[in-house]
Specification:
The chain has about 170 residues and is α+β, with helices and mostly antiparallel strands. It has 4 helices and 10 strands, in the order E-H-E-E-E-H-E-E-E-H-E-E-H-E. Strands 1, 2, 3, 4, 5 and 10 form a 6-stranded antiparallel beta sheet that branches.
């Protein structure tokens, strides 16, 4: 089983409910096991500041899917929740964004998939929830908690836990 880190983001619709359903879909469709889930964080948008703030979170799963099959599955789940990658604005609003951050210690540099995620260490909206669930994980030679100290976390707010659905 591979240990996989995935970032979740979105700013359209009921994002937190979408996250709950998306995590269930990720585990089911990857035949994976959820190892950890961060809190949800409200974060300022990149790009166009006139869009709503995002909600971001991270999960760790274990799966037997290879990285390409996993990425294909994540894109399928995004589409199920209303994302249209072909027609969206770069850094624009979206219902669900799933980014494959790290897959064990695999390093890939292909057009369709780069591992670890090439910009994760520049993004506080990824590192804050990631540090909550995997502070000591070393990715590309960097410890997550150390990488977090190198970015500004201004404007990032931890959201209260949601009650479990009845």
């Amino acid at each position: 089983m591979a240990s996989v880190l995935i970032a979740l983001g979105g700013n359209l619709g009921d994002v937190r409910t979408t996250f709950r359903k998306a995590v269930a879909n990720i585990c089911g469709m990857t035949q994976g096991a959820l190892v950890a889930r961060s809190s949800d964080y409200l974060t300022p948008p990149l790009g166009d500041p006139q869009q709503p703030h995002y909600v971001n979170a991270c999960i760790e799963i274990e799966t037997r899917l290879d990285p390409h099959a996993l990425l294909f599955t994540l894109h399928k789940i995004e589409k199920k929740f209303g994302r249209d990658r072909a027609h969206e604005q770069h850094w624009g609003p979206r219902t669900l964004d799933l980014d494959l951050l790290a897959y064990d210690d695999v390093r890939l540099g292909r057009r369709e998939l780069t591992l670890p995620h090439p910009r994760m260490f520049e993004r506080a909206f990824v590192l804050v929830p990631l540090a909550e669930i995997a502070p000591d994980r070393v990715i590309a030679g960097r410890r997550v908690r150390d990488a977090l100290t190198q970015v500004s976390t201004d404007g990032i707010e931890r959201l209260a836990d949601m009650p479990d659905p009845a």
